[in-house]
């Protein structure tokens, strides 16, 4: 699945595949920075419900990234969509989300959560899983990684080893998201209400900047293609 880096031994290739997936996704997923936002957006839920949401978000994020890794490039090719276009469209979503967070606070969905029982699948997927946790930036990274398959002939065992290592990278990413969200209350207790609010606003601003950066990355590539 992931293009193997020439190295003495299959074990080294597997480690490279694992690190390529995990290290490539960690900065853009940024579970540490998103944890305070997750906590603020779920402040009306009980701790038990919030823990359930953390588990659901991590599972949803895993399958979303897995689908992007495995079939994302084929889907884009089928519809004739390029990665720069995905970055521009997705960057607009992230920018809009970050702007709302920055200006209206953490309760973007009104007060419906206060009347809810156990969080439903919709509460876990949008906006907690996407675009907060797994946004267009991480999806485009996963698609890019998935498109780097070995083109030449290779043994089935070696391909399975690389695929399993990439899968472990996604599992490690999902576990990291779960732990950061699961123990977000500890962060709030440590920072206090005022400190948490500052971190949430700062994280929202960073999210806004990331969205603009994604838009610029895609737009500059499109402009380069158009003028070449």
Question: Features of this protein?
Answer:
0% strand; globular; disordered N terminus; single chain; 228 residues; mainly alpha
Overall average pLDDT: 77
Q: Label the overall shape.
A: globular
Radius of gyration: 19 Å
What is the total number of structural domains?
Answer: 1
Q: Number of helical runs?
A: 8
Estimate the helix proportion, in percent.
over 70%
Low-pLDDT regions: 1-7, 106-122
What proportion of the residues form beta strands (DSSP E)? under 5%
What is the CA-CA span between the terminal residues? 31 Å
* Major pleated sheet: none
Number of strands: 0
Structural features, described:
79% of the residues lie in helices and 0% in strands. The chain has helices at 10-29, 31-41, 47-79, 83-104, 121-133, 136-146, 156-182, 184-227.
